[in-house]
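Quick one: structure for this chain?
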Amino acid sequence: MRSWTSLFAKRPPGLLGLDLSASAARLVELARAPSGGLVLLHCAGEPLPQGSVVNGQIEQFDVVAAALRRLVKNSGSSTRQVAMALPAAAVSTLRIKVPAGLDGLGLEGVVLQEAARRLPFAFDAACFDYALLPTEPGTASPPQREVLLVAAPAEQVQDCQGVAEACGLQVLILEAQAQAQQRAVLNGLAAQATDPRGPALALWDLSDQSAGWLVFRHSHVFHEGTLIWHARPALVPAVSVDAFSWQEPQQSRLRDVHTGAELQGAWTPDLAPQWPAARQAWPAGADEFAATALAGEGWATQMAQALDAYARGGSGPALAQVLLAGTCARSPGLGEQLTELCGLPCQVVDPLARLQVGAGLVNWTAPPDAPAYLAAFGLALRRFDA
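Got it. Here's what it folds into:
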């Protein structure tokens, strides 16, 4: 059992937000302008080979380390302190009710006892941290308080720290990916997110294989879950710029999931000449360089069913909006189809759109997969912890 002391700790300035997903590593570094606005100092992405990271577990250590070295070098940043995130698959989050006024060793004892009973893995081989959650403004002092405990298997935490150290990076902060994404949204990406008494928001992190989602209001999370798509899009794994392996799609009408451009003709190797040119417009780290056979309709149906189950379960406040992030957030028609099915407005969240661009980013343009930088942006915000 190890204390995960970096999770809620406050940190000094000079910090990279480094997000490691199954398809790419992404980096964001921020500064504060004299006016108080955020300045984007550095931003970069580096694709990862399929199978190098699986469910948050680093399977090919040397491959990932080499990709991180390229990422840091290409970013141009001299900062070597990083904040990193573990994906939902690697993290268990518990909310524990304790008597109000309990603190110190008494609080720790109650939390550890409850964690040992409820965690899905051995607590003596876990890294953890916990903190008392604030009460909602204007409410009377409750007889009980809630403690948020976050834990992960020590092996995955050590792998994450080890691959960073192999690249000359120092991990100062390690937290759950969902917390980083939530922090990013609270930083002005959705107007209703900052109202502690307002309706709840649903945030989806979309890839070509699955979608993680959470329902939250301000700092309170009411639900977390993961969907595995029933209908996978047609995949085009890139072997090289000019060589592709092919799989049959489910429909013959094909559209580039990242640019929205429709690809003409039946799905055969005859389409190959179109793909090298199409790939040039794709973002670094796009999930297996995916094309989709209009899979958005099937995805929207699954998402609407999950949102309906949350609403009928009565476990939290009513939803007011759906936020879409991740590499497939801009899948053509997905937001419109989901709105039609569930009656809620949908918004693609782009954490880079409102930032001032630093002088060091000459001729910089935002990456097409900017919604996938949500976690890296949220991690970079830890630089400004009071």
